């Protein structure tokens, strides 16, 4: 029944060979991997304006040079990650690059922050998308957390069904969003050119008395939160159709160009329209309102924006399981993250991501404000480490034109480092938990690694010397009466060895006598040993008995305990049986060094 | 770790022989078994007045004759249940009496309604107690459900610790409550006698124009909800110290006398003071206020009233597990309800009651109004059936003075039957779910019974003819490489039989070749069979292989699958291992007719 439900939800299992068919074309990859980056257009400009407004309306013109600076950083990141794609064609996320060039610890730091960050991506994006919906329909405000959770469940199920199918479903909204924003920008620019906008905005270069370099840097770093998600492509190269590197590089440049154009377009329109951030209406909403009025086009843009924010979460569903797979392959995360599910996705990673992001949404009541700074720090730490790694690589390998590459990465590294430091100094009260949580994650990685290494050492054998050895065997059959189950268990045990003992744990003298007599009559060729129990437990006397057997056979024999278990015809019949055998199994197995043989008895009625 | 926590919560395990020591003395039994009945004083009079007030203030004098009628019914119930105690010294709840005299179906109807009713007792009492607290401290109103749940958890844990200890803790509040109510009544009566009360109340016998017989009967039946809990003593006879019947009968009479005196006292004071039920203050609170003013004594009475309502829930914790035990002994409920826990209580019944009443509290948001009618119907159905059963018994056995007994039970039966019918006709919209839920419970009883009977038939053997038979044996050892675990498994398997096959499920040709070569080098004396899998599952190929073995051995052999399982040093290491072996176990065991032998491998690091 459960398996049928799973089939309905997830779809039929697929062969390993079908994996190639699940690979992404460039256009599909753009949809799957870039929604996180592109969706940041919805709030990037707003973040800059929010900081600048602290210095008064006269300061808003700074948004233009700052946006251009962010654009410059985007260019640096794109060029740098393009270099990374060709240097690491098997998937060059910050984890791989940092580990390769800066050592394991740094790699784990990058990997750990990215893992945490993907969880935050899902939490932030689904909450922000919910915000967009509830802003349009205030009556849904009380159901914020539920809406975000429904979206997370939906995304989890879609991803369990497989990447290819998710892409088909999710590609259109991304294209729609890009189309809608471009229509908005073009219509807005036309309106400005024909003179339809009459805003009294400060001219570029106007002197502002109370602005400081610190404030400008803070605005710049806030604007940089729009660059989260850029790394997704270089992490996911193995998901691309062949030639994977070339396709990934092209996709990265496509994504960078679209993102840059949309971001600068929105920033320019916001400046020309003289738009000021408001608590009740987003900047994009104000631009759309000013351009089209509150008609069909306005609501379409708002709806599509909400949708793209939900899809941004989907980027993490591609990236998290792959990164977890890589960490698991290097034995820093449980092997379970390496298993591909029926539909070829890394199911455990997908489920883990879904559960933990849902938890974050519930804990933070779907409140994005406190999550976003954590999210940005989580991105810029691996950005910095990745570029530092690339710098080391240029210096070590010295390929042709290495000076240019080194320069690009050095500029990128310094910029991202500064942004990280600005985040830490200006927003420490919101991000301090990163500095508690990250060390825990990294210690966890090391502990897991050590355990796997120790286990491998422990299990290794010398095939020349260590060969199987034959020993004696004693089989213990606990019985509760004389039934078909006991008949079957004893038949099985006697087929394996002559050393079979039946054990009965009795509480009541009368019952003990009755059973002993009946056993004698039956005469199954196996000795019955009766243990008297003054507690109601059958486990304790049995354990003592097994200890006696162990002592008598002086560790020369294998001891096997046969435990019959009913296979019932209907699942609910299980409630009526098997409790004590389950307890006995669990206890004996973990406490004593015995083999537990579970003998099925199929009930037919 | 879990077991240490359990020890701390529940206490050390006790020997079966300590059971006698846990038996109840009369005074302790009064505390444990009568809090449900006695606590109804807190609302009995109020229920009557609420109905009468529909006919105006002039009708309140009817509360006196109605209270006397309720008192009469109480007398009838006490006498009747006293007869039951002596007729059924092993515990004569409605279930036993009805089953014995009216047939199994009627018994199950009585038993089922009582079980449901005990769950309702806990839900209603804990909610009503919470109401009393939150009325005194309105700031706690938002935490109603949490407070009720905390009380349920507390009661569950106390009862898991054992009845005796619960009684010691819980006896004092019951005595305090009885003391407090008697102090209140005596002080009130003195105040009335010395002329300190000046209320203009309608004289007894005043003509009331719009009162009907129906309304009087409705008021009477509402008042009868104060009699819930009277049956507890006769159900719990085996819990009494010897001579159990005599002690139980004495306890029953003590309880009846105290309940009757308190009930009529409160009714009289309410009448003399001219008290009218109010939405914001209970009748008892109004009486206490009028007698003592809002001082220490007033708050003490309110607090003790709240406490006694929580303890009323405790009655169900004694009664429910015993009734479930009786039904389980008759094979109408799962055997699990027959198991005594470490502290000699029927742990499963206690936990079941706690979980389901907590569920009801959550579902009804701790709202008593909709639960109380269900609760009353659930009590009066078994009351009626029990007395009908006693009537049949008198007629069948005809002991000395059987005419008197028959008359008592006939009057009681008719009265409770009429009350049940009045409940059904006047409050159908609130109690209809009983008529859906009860049949489901009773069908469940029958299904469970049939399953146990069928199983017993199926397992019965003819000890003269059916003897253990020795057959061949094949042991299948799934391997993933050549490690100490495989060495151990093969050593074990070869110690039992020569028919051992190692099976490797491979996904990758290179790895398969490498393993085959290494196996040859190792030469453990066991053939390695390689299965190629085009899915990632190792279960499917293995199942097909086992089917081949089954077919080859033509069902003459037992097939055993050896599954190694790591016993890790730290519990969290389990996350790192064992997933696939657990899946394999579960699947093979339920789908194929093979013995699963789980071989422990203890990791030391």
Automatic annotation (TrEMBL), chains A, B:
The chain crosses the membrane at residues 60-81, 102-125, 145-162, 174-199, 211-230, 251-276, 296-325, 346-366, 372-392, 404-425, 431-448. Keywords: Membrane, Transmembrane, Transmembrane helix. It is found in: Membrane. InterPro entries: AA/rel_permease1, APC_K+_Transporter. Its main location: membrane. The keyword Transmembrane applies. The keyword Disulfide bond does not apply. It is a multi-pass membrane protein. Coiled coil: none annotated. PANTHER family: POTASSIUM TRANSPORTER KIMA (PTHR47704). This is APC family permease. The lineage of its organism: Bacteria, Bacillati, Bacillota, Bacilli, Bacillales.
């Amino acid at each position: 029944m459960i398996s049928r439900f799973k089939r309905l939800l997830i779809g039929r299992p697929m062969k390993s060979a079908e994996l190639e068919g699940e690979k992404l074309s460039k256009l599909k990859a753009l949809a799957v991997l870039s929604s996180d980056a592109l969706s940041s257009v919805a709030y990037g400009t707003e973040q800059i304006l929010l900081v600048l407004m602290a210095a008064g309306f006269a300061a808003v013109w700074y948004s233009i040079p700052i946006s251009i600076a962010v654009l410059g950083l985007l260019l640096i990141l794109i060029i740098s990650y393009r270099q990374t794609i060709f240097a690491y064609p098997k998937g060059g996320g910050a984890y791989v690059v940092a580990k390769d060039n800066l050592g394991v610890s740094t790699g784990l730091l990058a990997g750990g922050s990215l893992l945490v960050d993907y969880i935050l991506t899902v939490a932030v994006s689904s909450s922000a998308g919910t915000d967009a919906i509830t802003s349009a329909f205030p009556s849904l405000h009380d159901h914020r957390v539920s809406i975000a959770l429904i979206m997370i469940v939906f995304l989890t199920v879609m991803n369990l069904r497989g990447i290819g199918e998710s892409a088909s479903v999710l590609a259109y909204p991304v294209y729609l969003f890009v189309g809608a924003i471009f229509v908005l920008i073009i219509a807005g620019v036309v309106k400005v050119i024909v003179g339809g906008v009459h805003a009294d905005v400060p001219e570029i270069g106007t002197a502002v008395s109370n602005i400081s370099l610190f404030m400008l840097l803070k605005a710049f770093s806030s604007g940089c939160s729009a660059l989260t998600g850029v790394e997704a492509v270089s992490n996911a190269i193995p998901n691309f159709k062949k030639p994977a590197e070339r396709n990934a590089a092209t996709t990265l440049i496509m994504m960078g160009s679209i993102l840059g154009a949309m971001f600068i377009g929105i920033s320019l329109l916001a400046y020309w329209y003289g738009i000021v951030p408001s608590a009740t209406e987003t900047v994009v909403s104000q631009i759309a309102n000013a351009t089209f009025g509150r008609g069909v086009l306005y609501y379409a843009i708002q709806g599509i924006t909400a949708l793209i924010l939900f899809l941004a979460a989907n980027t993490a569903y591609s990236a998290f399981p792959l990164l977890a797979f890589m960490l698991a392959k290097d034995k820093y995360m449980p092997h379970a993250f390496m298993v591909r599910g029926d539909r070829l996705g890394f199911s455990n990673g997908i489920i883990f991501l879904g559960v933990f992001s849902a938890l974050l949404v519930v804990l933070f009541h779907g409140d994005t404000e406190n999550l976003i700074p954590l999210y940005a720090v989580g991105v810029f730490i691996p950005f910095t480490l990745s570029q530092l790694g690339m710098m080391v690589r240029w210096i070590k390998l010295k390929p042709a034109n290495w000076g240019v590459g080194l320069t690009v990465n050095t500029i990128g590294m310094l910029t991202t480092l500064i942004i990280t430091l600005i985040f830490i100094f200006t927003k420490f009260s919101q991000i301090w938990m990163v500095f508690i949580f990250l060390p825990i994650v990294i210690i966890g990685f090391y502990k897991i690694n050590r355990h796997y290494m120790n286990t491998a050492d422990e299990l290794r054998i010398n095939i020349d010397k260590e060969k199987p050895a034959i020993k004696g065997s004693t089989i213990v059959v606990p019985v509760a009466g004389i039934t078909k189950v006991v008949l079957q268990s004893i038949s099985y045990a006697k087929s394996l060895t002559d050393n079979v003992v039946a054990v009965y744990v009795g509480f009541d003298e009368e019952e003990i006598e009755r059973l002993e007599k009946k056993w004698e009559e039956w005469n199954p060729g196996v000795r019955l040993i009766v243990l008297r129990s003054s507690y109601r437990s059958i486990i304790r006397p049995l354990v003592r008995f097994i200890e006696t057997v162990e002592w008598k056979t002086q560790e020369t024999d294998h001891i096997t305990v046969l435990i019959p278990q009913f296979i019932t015809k209907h699942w609910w019949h299980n409630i009526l049986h098997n409790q004590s055998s389950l307890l006995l199994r669990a206890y004996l197995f973990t406490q004593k060094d015995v083999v537990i043989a579970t003998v099925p008895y199929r009930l037919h009625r």
